[in-house]
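Data card: per-record layout.
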Amino acid sequence: MPYTLYGSQASPFVRRLRMLLNEMKYDFKEMNIFETQDAVILNKINPLNQVPVLQHDEKTIWDSRQIFQYLNGLHHFQKLDWKEENLLTSIEGAMDSGISLVLMKRSGMNIDENYMFINRQKERIESVLDYLSPVVKDHGLSQWNFSAMTLYSFLDWALFRNVINLEQRSEFKSFLEMHSNRPAVTLTAIPKV
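The structure for this 193-residue chain is written out next.
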């Protein structure tokens, strides 16, 4: 039975899995979790009420990292040591913070206000970019694997949502350019509408 992946086209958590599955047979069920009908469906398959969700055989897996672990166990995409695990955790933390900022903005909150929670999200993103900068400069993510897919998904999404500015971070712009023509990247591009 093929995999079924539920998610939105814009989500960086979903996109990295779509990139990973790019050369495999799977069904993508696009959802807009802010529309009532899709929100009801999502709530039925995932009590966390978040995407992505993977269904395979009798299994339903609710979290993108767990989905990767499941798929990696079956297909051996990438061996992760603790350094790679920490790298993924840091990017995921930045993605979580970016999503929090976008949701606050969409809720009508001014994310330029000086509130501890808002400042903490922005600080976390900058801290992660500072941590990743020497890794990217030393071509530590030049190999196209799940770690690189995760970073690409985050950077592209964060630029699209105006969460980050890379004007002073040319290493990340170079990283994006290096991978921008890969089929997995172009086929999963964020719709610009």
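Known properties of this structure: The first helix runs from residue 12 to 20. The helical segments are 12-20, 36-45, 64-75, 82-106, 116-137, 146-160, 170-179, 183-187.

See the next section for split statistics.
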